[in-house]
Design goal:
The complex is a heterodimer of chains A (about 180) and B (about 250). Chain A is built from 10 helices and no strands. Helices cover about 75% and strands about 0% of the residues of chain A. In chain B, the strands form 2 sheets. A 5-stranded antiparallel sheet of chain B has the order 1-2-4-5-8, with no helix packed on it. In chain B, strands 3-10-9-6-7 form a 5-stranded antiparallel sheet, with no helix packed on it. Chain B starts with 6 loop residues before the first helix and ends with a strand. Classes of the chains: A mainly alpha (about 180), B alpha+beta (about 250). At the A-B interface, helix 2, helix 3, helix 4, helix 7 and helix 8 of A face helix 1, helix 3, helix 4, helix 5 and helix 6 of B.
């Protein structure tokens, strides 16, 4: 059965239907949460929040807008960034995983710290196609939860430059994707 | 195609697609997109790139306990709503709710908070395993005022087998819990009241639990207009906003 049909059943509280969708996309959702949160414990929490939100909001899923996979991953992205920002606000909370502590963006971070962290985590072949300055702003925003103005401050470049790099980077990715699928 | 007449908004498209706009700016962009076909089209063109970013991440495998936790909550939700559906129909427990009933029940018993609202409040109230839902198991009038008991749910990860309920009688409301863990050294449980999707409001109701996990607290406020009662572990003395994920949620 297709994801879209299963989601319709899940919207009427069919736990078995939701479990099938869950099994199909959990690995992708978890990998995304782990990429953003940076630790197993935090990724577990964010992923759990995301999946419960998806289950309880299943009635809001609209197959005309996009695939169930994209919808689930978008929720996971939001929850993971939310989780990361909450950790930032509560830095005094216990963070058992040193990696997670390292990953928390903070106003106290130095530019070198933040950029080194992003550099270590650079993984993606697709992003590797981009000029470094465009890749950096995309990674800092999409995976680390920084706003455009925070990135401008971090990189010590004008805000307009950051916005321009974001748009240009996404445009290049779009062209690259179109070329790859042609 | 008509060109965008607001270059400030057009310049923001990339940041908006990446989720890098602050809330006010994102709201302005959403309003702009309603009216500007040029920007809406440009944003749609970027959607593929944004979706690619969602999946081009290093693989990481979740442990089996993650699925166990999530599906335990999902099945608890499903059972709760099936039972509520049967109760609403005045029948024995039904095998499955009728189509659409889930949505109606959620509206009646307390719908999940939209993601954007949760983000804006800084607290995700549908997180961490709290099942938002409840069932009224008794009510009526006995001459001393109306009374009712409303069952809530406890995060099974925090308190396996835990129970929580609100008992209202004669205009007084009490929160009663069972099977709850100790809130932690130097910490207490704090009761919160929530209306709609607003931020939880603190109460003066702070309590701990006995060795057997039982505890009670008078809810020092009229519950009229309150949609949910929440409980979270907070530092001794309480907090003005939840600092931890609520472990109890009771939809009124």
């Amino acid at each position: 059965m297709a994801d879209e049909e299963l989601m319709a059943l899940a919207a009427d509280a069919d736990a078995d239907a939701f479990e099938v969708v869950f099994d199909r996309h959990l690995a992708a959702a978890y990998a995304l949460a782990h990429r953003i949160c940076g630790s197993t414990a935090a990724a577990d929490d964010a992923c759990q929040e995301a999946m419960m939100a998806a289950w309880r909001s299943a009635g809001r899923y609209d197959a005309r807008v996009g695939s169930a996979r994209s919808w689930l991953l978008a929720i996971t992205h939001n929850k993971s960034i939310d989780h990361l920002r909450r950790m930032t606000r509560h830095r005094d909370r216990n963070v058992a995983d040193e990696t997670a502590a390292e990953r928390v963006p903070s106003g106290e971070d130095t530019q070198a710290d933040a950029l080194a962290r992003v550099e270590r985590e650079r993984t993606v072949a697709l992003l590797g196609e981009l000029p470094d300055d465009q890749r950096r702003v995309i990674e800092l925003s999409f995976y680390s939860g920084y706003s455009h103005s925070e990135i401008a401050e971090l990189l010590e470049v004008p805000l307009g430059t950051v916005k321009g790099r974001m748009r240009a980077g996404l445009e290049k990715l779009r062209v690259h994707l179109q070329g790859a699928s042609a | 195609m008509t060109q965008c007449t607001d270059p400030r908004m057009e310049e923001l498209l990339g940041a908006y697609a990446l989720g890098a706009c602050p809330p006010g700016e994102a709201e302005a962009m959403r309003a702009h997109l309603e009216a500007c076909r040029s920007c809406a089209r440009a944003l749609a063109d970027l959607e593929g790139a944004r979706e690619a970013l969602l999946t081009t991440v290093p693989p990481a495998a979740p442990g089996p306990e993650l699925k166990q936790r999530v599906m335990a909550q999902v099945r608890a939700d499903a059972a709760l709503f099936a039972a509520a559906a049967a109760r609403e129909a005045g029948t024995a427990p039904a095998p499955a709710p009728e189509p659409g009933l889930w949505t109606r029940l959620r509206e009646r018993l307390g719908a999940p908070i939209p993601l954007a609202t949760a983000l804006a409040c800084g607290v995700a109230l549908i997180i961490g395993g709290v099942v938002l839902g409840s069932a009224v198991i008794g009510g009526g009038s006995n001459g001393g005022g109306t009374s009712r008991v409303v069952l809530g749910k406890v995060d099974p990860a925090a308190a396996p087998g835990g129970k929580a309920r609100i008992v209202e009688r004669g205009g007084q409301a009490r929160l009663v819990v069972e099977g709850m863990p100790d809130p932690g050294a130097g910490r207490v449980y704090e009761v919160w009241l929530q209306t709609g999707t607003g931020a939880p409001r603190p109460t003066r109701a702070l309590f701990s639990v006995n060795r057997d996990g039982s505890g009670e607290a008078a809810v020092p406020s009229d519950l009229k207009g309150v949609d949910r009662v929440l409980v979270s572990s907070e530092p001794a003395g309480g907090s003005t906003a939840p600092t931890r994920t609520p472990v109890v949620a009771i939809g009124l």
